[in-house]
Amino acid sequence: MVLWPILTYYTLNTYRQLVDSIRALSTYSVLYRYLNNGVIPGDSKADEIFFNHVSESWNWTKTMYQRLTTAYMDYNKFNVKVCQPDAVLISGKRFSRTYIQEFYTNMTARFDGNIDKLKHYFLKLWSVKHIADTLLNSGANSNFCESRAAPKDSLFLLFTEKQLSLQMPQTVPEVTLDTDVVTQIVSDMGVCVMWMIYFSATGPYRFPDMVILKYAGNNRNLFIDPETRCLEIITSYSKTRREEYLCKTLDKQTSDYLFYYIFVARAVLKHSMGENYDGMNKDLFQDTNTVAEQYLLRNYLSRSVGNGESEEDWDPVRYSKIVLNSFVFVDCVSHSLMNYSKFAAFMKLYPASISGTSRLSFREMRHGMIKLVREYVKVEGESFEVMNMKERLAGHSAATGQSVYANDVETGTGSDASLEEKYASLINSAWQNWLGLGYGKEREEGGSAVARNACVKKYFSTNGSIKDLFVAGKKLYGKEFRFREGQFDVAVEIYLSGTQIIPIQALPGFGKTALFQIPLVALSYGEQKTVSFVFVPYVCLLSNMKLRLSSCGINCGILKDLFVNGPAVEEKNLFCDVYVGTFNDLGSENFVRLVNNWYNIYQDCILGMIVIDEFHNLETEQSYRGQSFRLIPEINFNLAWKVVVMTGTAGEKGMVKPMKFIGYDKEMCTSMVSNKNRILYFDLVNQIPLKNIVKKFQAFERSTVAETEVEKLVDRFMEYDTKSKVIIVCKEKVTVEK
């Protein structure tokens, strides 16, 4: 049937409507034949497909209704409701950030308690912090660099034998080693670490993906980031049966505990089991439930051991040693990999302060974590691509995105890393920050967390000269070009100084545009690719500004066109030197995300100038269209090379509030001073500007009514000051709103 490929993509309710339509069609068809005594020419056997119980169509209809019933039961059971500020309600149970935080804390405490228990049998059993500082956090970054395409055989080969041997525990003399007790303790420590990974890895992480973690052998999927020394997991989602790889980075605390478990706890386990241990089961995944998981895991196993030989040909000792020295979560109590029942048992015990009836099942927790990530964990300027990546991190196939995870085979995250990889990293970091995971992190209280990623500004200097400005000016205005009084100082300040924020006041007709236009032209002569942005208050001014900038040879585009294919803009698509937009574009989510993630996404392009013309409008028009400006304070303007804000009518005092609005609250001065606590304000007005600016937005049905109201307003001003100057601007409603 041609419908089959289409039905796969229907939502539950849409699918129900379709099946209901089929039922209605069949019902009315049979009724029509019954009422007409079965007389339908050429259709004497039409109703047999529903009366005959072996009919394929009838069986299909019954089967689909049964599946729909089951799906609706699950849908109702896991219908998740958002409960601000940091929780969701699922199956009548509250699942929150504090729920996860306490569960995680319980795991670390239980793990540390198990270390104390092992000290009865072993000496030199150091703390997690000591092992991390001595091995994981020491040494040059280059020691931890390895190819992901052809990694070392074992994580331990990143360290010298001397480093490892100095930290190895030793048995306590005259104390009999109880193998059963030690294996129980190490197994318990493994479950603790699995839960820590589950909460840290973002997603949530599926149990079958954790049991196939390997620190050694072929198909090793555990690595150390050379910079942060956090552990990275290369994983693919088991249900898909396809290798759509993702990189999940653990926070530092979880990384230290996992490293300790692999290095210390597993060494204790191997010592207690002895050299001749031969009890490992051949079916390591006997506790997996679904066919899809069994299929992938069994194939994973066959690719993971033996180097081409069948494990059936191995003797039990060799086979057991290979499994014990490669897989992370081996359980020598059951002589297999960690089984799900042992992992799931912790959900009935933790969080410790939550009553048993209020604790979530594994499936409920999975649905809840997906909802928490969607609702509360935000990266700057949440985009469609970021939302898709959240689903992929949770184990879903995103509607868009690459089918194979674009991972740099040498270092894991290279300069050619895809946007999806960077989004995954941002979400990973945002989730861990929101939960407060890691050492020395304060846990947030209150509302939704907007995770600001650590976007580091790149140093940039034009390495130019004053002559560049004269060359640019002559290109713009001809050979007779000369700077007006005051223009040269501003142009030099923009082009050559280290000043980042430059507020300017100049009257209309002075040549305000030239103040930033000349430095932009000079900037375009350089070898370093830079992209700048110019903003005007209204749409009606947009085309004129673009025309003026384009006339001097600058490649200029419209900012909205930059996002025509979606919020994510590849570096190769930054064709223009300058993009022009309105104040509404300045406050858009797309632009906020673009600026705040600039150097996380773009490697070879400098964020140049951000120019805001008629800057005072950000303050004076708050009452009228403040909703359009609400995201502007979220922009990290400090990432830009220069921020130039201009006004023609507002004086120094009138610039104070809009400057604070965009994050600059230092005192302004007009004298040339080298004081980091003050901002140099360029006042290029020779005549006294307008003292007071009053804007009143009011719509009138008839022009005569407008004239009457304007006369009253003018009279009130003249009563206040007979020397007042009043400028009245009347526009059509459509023009003003744009």
Q: In angstroms, what separates the terminal alpha carbons?
A: 51 Å
- Counting helices, strands and paired strands, the structural category is alpha/beta
Averaged pLDDT? 75
The percent of residues in helical segments reads 40-55%
Strand numbers in spatial order across the main sheet? 15-16-14-17-18-13-21
InterPro entries: DEAD/DEAH_box_helicase_dom, P-loop_NTPase
GO molecular function, one term: ATP binding
Domain DEAD/DEAH-box helicase: 491-651
Protein name: DEAD/DEAH-box helicase domain-containing protein
Question: Which features does this protein show?
Answer:
extended, disordered N terminus, 5 domains, 3-stranded antiparallel sheet, alpha/beta, 738 residues, 7-stranded parallel sheet
If you had to describe this structure to a student in words, what would you say it looks like?
The chain has 738 residues and is an alpha/beta fold. Helices cover 43% and strands 11% of the residues. It has five domains: 4-77; 95-352, no CATH class; 362-451, no CATH class; 466-683, Rossmann fold; 703-737, no CATH class. The protein has a seven-stranded parallel β-sheet with strand order 15-16-14-17-18-13-21. The protein has a three-stranded antiparallel β-sheet with strand order 1-2-3. Strands 6-7-8 form a three-stranded antiparallel β-sheet. The longest helix is centred in the N-terminal third of the chain and has 24 residues, at 12-35. It is extended and about 100 Å long.
TL;DR of this structure?
By secondary structure, the protein is α/β, with parallel strands linked by helices.
